[in-house]
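Handout, section B. The chain below has 810 residues.
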Amino acid sequence: MKKQLDESGGSAAVARGTGGTPPSGTLVDGHAGLTSAQVAERVAAGRVNDVPTRSSRSIGEIVRSNLFTRINAIIGVLFVIIMIVGPVQDGLFGGVILANTLIGIIQEVRAKRTLDQLAIVGESRPRVRRDGQRVTLSASEIVMDDVIELGQGDKIVVDGTVTTAENLEVDESLLTGEADPVVKRPGDAVMSGSFVVAGSGTFTATRVGREAYASQLAEEARRFSLVNSELRNGIDRILKFVTYAIIPAGISLIITQFMVNDDDLPEAIRRMVGGLVPMVPEGLVLLTSLAFAVGVVRLGKKQCLVQELPAIEGLARVDTVCLDKTGTLTEASMDVDDVLALLPTVPAAEVLGALGASDERPNSSLQAIIEAYPAPEGWQRTATAPFSSARRWSGATLTEPSGAESTWLLGAPDTMLPAGHSVLTAADSYGARGLRVLLLARSSRPLDELLDDAAAVPGAVTPAALVVIKQRIRQEAPATLRYFADQGVSAKVISGDNAVSVGAVASSLSLPGADNPVDARFLPEHPEELADAVEQNAIFGRVGPQQKRDMVGALQSRGHTVAMTGDGVNDVLALKDADIGVGMGSGSPATRAVAQIVLLDNNFAALPSVVAEGRRVIGNIERVANLFLTKTVYSVLMAIVIVIAQVPYPFLPRHITLVGSLTIGVPAFFLALAPNSERARSNFVGRVLRFAVPAGALAATATSVAYLFARSVYDDNLDAETSAATLALFLTALWALAIIARPYTWWRILLVLTMAVSFAVVLVVPYLQTFFQLKLVGVAAPWTAVACATVAGLVLEFVWARMRRRSADD
């Protein structure tokens, strides 16, 4: 993870920052915060930041969203009608809907508990002053008038007024859209939802809870959601298509059944309901939610917090992943490898120790320096300049024990020295080995002048020492990058570090393009030219925060689906704009807030698991959608045939429930949760319809021919005619299931065989024959039904083969 003096430009606080409660004691700036009594008074008055940060819906919302749906309303009305006319076995479809709804609620509650537990681990914990001491609290414990400390990378969780500021800069882009940081001084307002990019300070809370500016936005942003998903949008389109098809077919069927069964109103109602029930794809939305919820639970066990559910699907569709080097490819912790003295008269060790001691929130680079060089005695800090991504250096004015005062800068050599300087050659030689290099330099000008005119730094500093820092490659990085390469996902390293150093790290990981790193300071600004450069190259150094955002946008403009990983505040803008933002658990609170996926244990190797879960969801829901849409198509077409032929509808609700459960409902449940490593593809709706329409048409044709033939064989024996038609429909639907279940594994074969055996049991067991009103009579009609189903199955095999060839060509 990158921090204040990190030359890559990152800026999240660790160690003595957000990582734990700092040493307590009386504060010296006079802002001691509220007393315990004052806090209790405000809590009692309800003046507390009580907006819960939820990553999931409440249990009440889960129950309502699963129970009160349009599909359940339709099925519920039909169920009530059947219960009025009876018998009870024709109302079995109501029990199936109830069971599916309960399963959906139970699984989503499991997912909610997982998400909520992980969200607690990953939530922001601001530092608040109480009773003259610093304490670390959850955001929900803040009350009105609390004094809250701010440091680089901190997310501002409530609205307030700045009380103290030391070069404090706040990024409000997530609220206002303005990318430039805003300098804050005492008396200025700060808004919840913004974050600190430089400096430090304190502010007093003036609006908390639902009164805070961004509270509603933050709550909605972290909510358990299935929206804005290509998969979900595709299912919505399918449901619209189904609705348009059901209405005319349903009305025509109702009229026909009342006409042909005018002497038996209850039978007409049962046949009418039997025609309407299968038109509704009742389990499709349920199984989509179920697949996502199970994915959340599985990823939660790997310490992966999915803050927006479509991210599971989205990462599976990514074709380009932009990686921030420090904290992603390399570990956050570092070690000082060497210090090369450039001015022998300068006590570099003491200066470095004093700079480290002057920073209350050391980053990983400075933490390595602190561990190597303890604070010297007698050195005092009189002024500081915090690190900023634009400057890429920080500094302090120090008073030595002798009383001599001097100003020191520490940062990236190539931004502090003019091009061609001899020291840069030495720095590049270290960078070529993958080492990070910081320049310690003495300034001839005071800090405030350099802050006002950063361009004057190269002419105002004298190099004193090069600090060489060794970075540790994450053990899991090589395997993870190989996985992405094998899956056709291109990796681009976008870092604020020196381009040569970034290239060396990339080379050690065998990344393509590592031998040609690009210095982002010389990238073109024109969008088209920038897009060309980003597409043609893979390793970029010296990339600023706005440039990261522009580069992500450039890739998106060329049709790429982009994921961005990062942990520092300089990654926030790019994470926000990327199709999928992946943050590290140890990253800055601002980074975790905007990322859709947070790796709580900072394990980069978890990303393949997310991709795998996304592929499982996409592939399995496509399988399930094929089955449900096949049923809808054949039901609509059967209704049309029945209306034209002016005959009774061949099925009662119990027959449709039996066939649907054995060929769709039960198998779909297992298929939706099965392993699936197929690569995600676009045009979900088109592929589903390419199978479902011909499969449904063939099922309707086979069933209609078998039914009409049976009517010519039997002398007004509707039960025998229904049995022949049911046999034809089941066999055709089972064949479709057998196709969708491919490629076969032992359990898939067992699943299909179990469904076939279950139907055979119904046909031979007398009680079940009576219960389901199914009994095959004679030989001609049953074997004709088998022949019709066989022909339909063979034609479907031909259609499937063509689909597979077309898919392979795509």
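Note. The first helix runs from residue 36 to 44. Compare this with the example in section A.
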